[in-house]
Input
Amino acid sequence: MGIDPEKSPLVKKVFELYATGNYPLHSLANWCVEHNLKGNKNNKISISSLQKILQNIFYIGLMKFKGEVFEATHEPLISKKLFDTVQEVMAKRGKKKDIRKHHFAFLGLLSCGYCGCAITAEIQKGHHYYHCTKKKGPCQEKHYLREEQLTEQIKNFLQKVSLSSQDTGKVLAALDSEQEQAKQQAKVKVENLKKQLSQVETKLAKLLDVFLADALSTEEYAAKKQEFITQKVSLKEEITDFEQKGLSWLEPAREFVLSLNQASKLVETENKEEMTTFLKNIGSNHILRNRQLIFSPKIPFNLVAERSEASHQNLTFPYWCPREESNL
Ligand SMILES: [Zn+2]
Output
């Protein structure tokens, strides 16, 4: 078993390119297609087989048999030095990908409060640190923020907009009864409007009878008819309004209450990935400045946070409730 003499210069080039660190596996696979380098069965070289090639000691003149390494009879295609560099690049790349995927929970949430660049993270002495990428050039933000401190700041905010599960239950029940009440009121109102509507319809029918009996001029008939038709249209509109739009504030209110409850759960579970999602959902412009997380919460969350800040206590039902606000 030797190395295909036609392929060997290309395979050697693959090692050299990968060793530069500028060619991730997928772009190297594209390079193979462009240079017509194919696999054993004349098929396209996949990313995984490319990885196998780059790790295969066959190319430095060795062979593995039952877990043991032997010197092969064929001439090595590449130097051991090049092979080792390739292994180093691959280990680094794998690690980098792994870290991005699993460990830095707040990555993608923040930008720098000075230059606007993205905030990145790295590990130092076993701790995660967040800092400016400085991609736009020098930045006056010199600080690194430890993940534990960032988590504390986030929890501090979450605490201010937390509603316990018990109180959430109470508020949801209150909203339900509010909805029931509103429905009843709407029903009575709609019945009333429908009565008025049928009266107008009767008037319209009578008007036609009177006109047909020649008791009205065409002008008088037209004017009266227009009056009744206009009444009819606005009554119908009012009915639709009461049936459909009357309760439009309830769903957003429910969602809001549930998200306050989610905040309280996040404080308990400390699920950092979910904290990131939560913060993105309820606000914008998340920045890091002088080791401080700053962002603009959406208005209701802002109100709740400010109120609980002013009262120095957690939210309690029903004092946070927007509908109670006017009574305070
Ligand atoms: Zn910056």
Summary: The radius of gyration is 36 Å. Residues 112, 114-115, 117, 132, 134, 139, 141 surround zinc ion (CB under 6 Å).
